[in-house]
Amino acid sequence: MFSYSMEYGIPLKTLTAQETARKFDFEWLCRYPRPSTVSSDNGKQFVFNEFAELLQSYGIHHHTVPAFQPSSNGLVERINLTIGNALRLNSNQPITNLLIQSISWSIRATSHRVLNCSPSEMVFGSHMLEARLINDKDKVLKVAQEKKKKQSSYDIERQNDKRIDFKFEIGKKVFIKSNNPNKLENRFNGPYLIKSILRNNTVQVDMGTHPQILNIRKQKPLHEPEKKEKKAECRKVHPGPANPGRHTKPLFTK
Questions:
Q1: Can you tell me the distance from the alpha carbon of 78 to that of 128, in angstroms, rounded to the nearest whole number?
Q2: What is the rounded distance in angstroms from the CA atom of residue 128 to the CA atom of residue 107?
Q3: Tens of pLDDT along 208-244?
Q4: Where is this region: Disordered (predicted)?
Q5: What are phi and psi of 194, to 5 degrees?
Q6: For all residues of the chain together, what is the average pLDDT?
């Protein structure tokens, strides 16, 4: 579990809804201001009653990312990858809470390439490597927001260059990308009908048994042939010979 602003990690012993709710309550909600929204994947530890009831009691909105779309929760996935790489470098040591906190400290103290500052500088206005304060914290935050917005616009433009121009609309059909297919399985399943258009490049697709929310990156549009109206064709009737059994002129002349 991570915070987007502080990059504060909370290690979990077991992936249960009860353990997740308890850790989130004790480690975050009892120490820091409550967030307005919590984003998570569709794991059982986040969608079961214990965690849902905790968020409801604090008045926190729970937002789940589309299924099989890790990039929708990219910051958390990137930090998990960084922690995993650091743990592999220390594979000769047992994984303890002290080791995880040491790795988390290095993440908070490292300057971010896009933000041009470390998470601790942006949130608390002070350096973690030396005891000095930042004179103008608002200026640092403003520069970080501008650089983040510029990088986000660049990433969106770069991704849109490779996309096919297609407008997702209710009633159209799409193919859904298969998850980890083998060599003989189809790479896409469907087509399925689009039921509704949601925000953040997601649509609700009718999968037969139940509707599912998926990102457009997991979909391939079905290009149906345009239906053309059949125009009534008038056939010209040529008048035949008076006696259909005989020709008025011989076929061959001498």
A1: 22
A2: 11
A3: 777 888 887 788 888 777 666 555 555 555 555 555 5
A4: 217-254
A5: -80, 125
A6: 76
